[in-house]
Amino acid sequence: MSQYVAGVDVGGTKIAAILMDAAGRTGAWITWPTEAAGGPGGVIERIIALIKFIMEQNGITEQQLLGIGLGVPGLVNSREGKSVFSPNLPGWRDIPVAAMVGRGIGVPVIIDNDVRMAAWGEKLLGAGRGWDDVICLTLGTGIGSGIFIQGKMFKGRDESAGEIGHVTVEKDGPRCSCGNLGCLEMYASGRGIARLAREALEQAGSSLLLELAGGDAGSITAATVCQAASQGDHLAQQVVAKAAMYLGIALAGLANILNPQRIVLGGGVMGAGELLLEPVRRAVRERAMPLNREVEIVTAELGERAGAIGAAALARQEFILGEGRSKWIW
Amino acid sequence: MSQYVAGVDVGGTKIAAILMDAAGRTGAWITWPTEAAGGPGGVIERIIALIKFIMEQNGITEQQLLGIGLGVPGLVNSREGKSVFSPNLPGWRDIPVAAMVGRGIGVPVIIDNDVRMAAWGEKLLGAGRGWDDVICLTLGTGIGSGIFIQGKMFKGRDESAGEIGHVTVEKDGPRCSCGNLGCLEMYASGRGIARLAREALEQAGSSLLLELAGGDAGSITAATVCQAASQGDHLAQQVVAKAAMYLGIALAGLANILNPQRIVLGGGVMGAGELLLEPVRRAVRERAMPLNREVEIVTAELGERAGAIGAAALARQEFILGEGRSKWIW
Q: Which of residues 187-216 of B touch A (CB under 8 A)?
């Protein structure tokens, strides 16, 4: 009888699930709307229903499913299996999500936050595969990271390590939702790049960028900026250059502090590809210390499926291969 | 027969040595001029002579000395017992200092860089005692740190981690000797604070600070700045506030990345005491993420003896208690 685990990635707008077999092969990826307004109870019901649905679709019985990996946004207490707080999920405070999902399906559940699950995906099956000292960033609406030191995920005492998005890169910069001024997130996240573009447009007046956004500066996204930049729009290129400079400053600092072998950049913003990556690499080479600047900086390989794949891969380690740390299981 | 280890801290201007017994008690501290111009051979002869001298002074035989801990400035390969490069010691490149000193005395030698040895001192016998996740900074002529994660020193792949002094805090700031612009060292090291003071004096013209320096702006040090600030000199107070702000920015970033329990600040600059510490704590509370801002920030306890005490304490762990990692011994 074949053995499986499920990986689930809960986001503010959608829940994604994937199955993985004992050999680490993944099946089809399914997403459902989160319907976050339904509160923790409603969302958890949807998580359970989605897992049952994907099992049914693949003809997998409860006996064949050995465990579930679950990524949730925000601050997580992985030891206790709790979502401590999630700004993107209304009402989520101290929710014992691992126990609730585990009871609903009848298998053990390992949880962590969505960014760390995506990092696990890249570390085990993506661009971080085979590297011991690797840091995987997600540059999405916000910016977070998963830090691997000697092959192990480093989370810090309160599971609050890796908050590279909230490192100050401009001491008098705009105020971030975290309360700090000039956080990296204000410049290099999806939201930050869109903000930089709107600011630049206020000065410039017109640009291909504005046309691509249908004349509405408010609907500009990081994707619009990258599209305009790749089509030669000077204003958009300047915005990308600015985001890359700030990202380079933060990554050089990270490299100076942690001396990693490899930094993997994922998330929607990395749709920009070499347009963003090349100036980031240059900034790190210019700013980091001699040995630290040798860090390799590469794009992630798993795309938007990284979180669900990582959750499944971690569950596979834990529940099929038995390599994990059982204290993390609820 | 009592057992001892020796701790030696090699600096650009002086070499310090201390003896430690099996119970962790230290004897008198002795310093000699380094005479760095003599090159690696000359300095290593002086290290050996100083160790022999302190043994003789204390009536300790070769049989009673079980090992030596040795801190050297710059980049170290502790596994191979080599000083890779030291900007403060002319001619030091790939010097097998552990082997040379070990052969000279006839005991094993464990080496690391001076900042990490000072961190070991604070971790084992000073302000970091009893804490698992603690970062110990030395704010001296330059700025460096030793990072402890779950009680273990984290050095990075190339032993180049912890370079917090070269994190960018002002993207267009002055150029640092490392090549980067606006490194923390340019603002909060002894040299950085003196530089800020000279800059401020150029604008202001006169100040108590200038009087304290005998009318010569070129002879201002961080100590002069602190003295003037504590005597109410406005210009000096502004310089200290600026240094504290930049240090706070860097420590908030460090706390966001590593989520430590405690940060210990040592080195000559900390002679400023609460004058510097209080605004640094405030900046970290204002800038770090909720859980990360709870990090305790305290001054070091061992003063200028931290490096030699740390080297001795590490040697004691390694050669008397047998808790160390033998691969680090030459």
A: none
